[in-house]
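Researcher: I'm preparing a figure for a lab meeting and need a structural model of a single chain. I don't have an experimental structure, so a prediction will have to do for now. The sequence is pasted below. Please return the structure as tokens so I can convert it later.
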Amino acid sequence: MRKLTVTLGVLLAGLLAVALAWFEPWRLVTDSEVDEARPTSVPRSPTSTPTVTATASPPAPTDEPRDEVLARGDFESAEHDTSGTAVVLSLADGRRFVRLEELATSDGPDLHVWLTDRPSGGDWHSYDDGRYVRLGPLKANHGNQNYEIPAEVSLSGLRSVVVWCDRFDVAFGTAAVEL
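Model: Understood. Here is the structure written out token by token.
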């Protein structure tokens, strides 16, 4: 009888250890924060030393490309309460970014930022069913953060930014950014 009790105790302890490692329940009460500056184009170096002159008229408009907001959407909660804004930026130097502003969501295991072709607010599990682009691991569950979109990625048809949990295949939150 004692041998059976010890065996059951060891099995239960092992199951508890596996469950704790898999679900990471302490993440329900932990937070992390990041505050990255909004990305900007790399300044072009002048070809000559600029001179300052006083003029009475405003400077003439230039045809140089400018940084541009391609889309903006507020986060909707999915599996977990999520708020903030997702902004898709195109910079004058050709780089593109997804910027999460004032993000607030739960901490969780294996969280990532994706662009997907699924509409925001859909089924929590559906965002990996169609086309999606992995932009990287979520840097923190609170704050402002930037994710560069690879140059070879076409934005055509992408409809939402998703905070995605790879471990459990669920969306924590989504933001509509019709591109």
